[in-house]
Design goal:
By secondary structure, this protein is of the alpha+beta class. The protein is built from 14 helices and 14 strands. Strand 7 and strand 8 form a beta hairpin.
Amino acid sequence: MNLMPSNRTGENPLWESSEPYYDDIVTLWDLFRSAPPLIQILQPVAYEEQIRSMIDIWRHDGYMPDGRSSNFNGRTQGGSNADNVLADAYVKGVVGGIDWSDGYRAMVKDAEVPPPNNHVDPAAPDSSDKEGRGALPDWLALHYVSTKYSRSVTRAVEYSANDFALFQVAKGMDKTEDAAKYLNRSRNWRNHWDPNATALGFSGFVVPRHEDGSFVNQDPLSCGGCYWPNAYYEALPWEYTFNPIHDMATLIYYMGGTELFINRLNVTFEPNKGPKGRTVAFGNTIFDPTNEVSFLTPYLYHYAGRQDLSVKTARNLAEKNFKPGKSGLPGNSDSGAMQSWLLWNMVGIYPVTGQTTFLIGSPWFGMTIDLGEGKTLKITTNQGGNDTAIYVQSLRVNGRKWNKNWLQWSDVFANGGTLDFDLAEAPSGWSLDGELPPSPASERQSL
């Protein structure tokens, strides 16, 4: 299905190993949100091999890759996102030939040992961008990433997700002390929260901090050069603020509650609210459909109980920005990341990386997905091919009435299952009284 990562098993010139070997991982910071969960379902053998390969790269090169090509780790843009990929596999019960003891040790190396500074990038000479977490000294000492380091906010947001990944695996291995430590560290994104940063009538955004603890006076609608030497990589502060997916209940609380959270999401997709000239081809919205940082943002209405708004937004974005033909993608494919977002949209569910949670959208048509080992996921809809009848009226999961806007891996993937959708052209209030999706890092689970 994919040209990258490329299977080079038996062709590795650097070491001999009985493990699979994959190269050309370009790059996990783009891929981890949607592509590996799709590969797990469609190509489970290759998926397991890729995880085994990343662990074997740690055994021989010292760190798992965030990006790798020509048998060389590098670059690392933000966090150590192989951690997210491993955690996603672990919580979904992937075992096969994976040595999870070594897998966890590789993750701990990312979380605890700063990589040596390779100084290959004159635009960001402050720390390694080859592998691991270059800004880890700040993360461990200050519990945030100061402006001493490039891409400080990007790194902080991603390090939080990476530490949540370690929490998930540590918890599963009954490593109680480790689990508590990494869960607490996964909340460090909060240390970048400036309640006084404002834009378009909304207050509270993740912003840079100096070593003395003071916040940078940051415009939430500007990321400067938005590249390697800047505090934010390829996305606005406004966009990165929506990224603590493991701690959504806290984020909604920080934003002032459910109503203000929904209003802020609405403005994110409203034309002509973004910086002039940035997303001209897409209506000059704050949301940038070419950038993976915002892949999950259209679905965040789920966490406020408004699955219908997620469906409306995600379907509109897909139909406006993806077309058949050579120029059919809104931006760079990024090794299939863009296509994987669209495919999940069509299937009608969306994965939450590092968790067993899938957010329920609405399928574009009925389908049967071969899960391997004789298992299938069969999805039916009464409105297949109808582009306007997109709203869920009712849903049965494995024949049972379902009123939650989310489901778990065990519900339909572990042993196969069925999803039977009744769709119509207007929202019905389905799932409004259902339990909200999990927010596992949040002390408060509801507002």
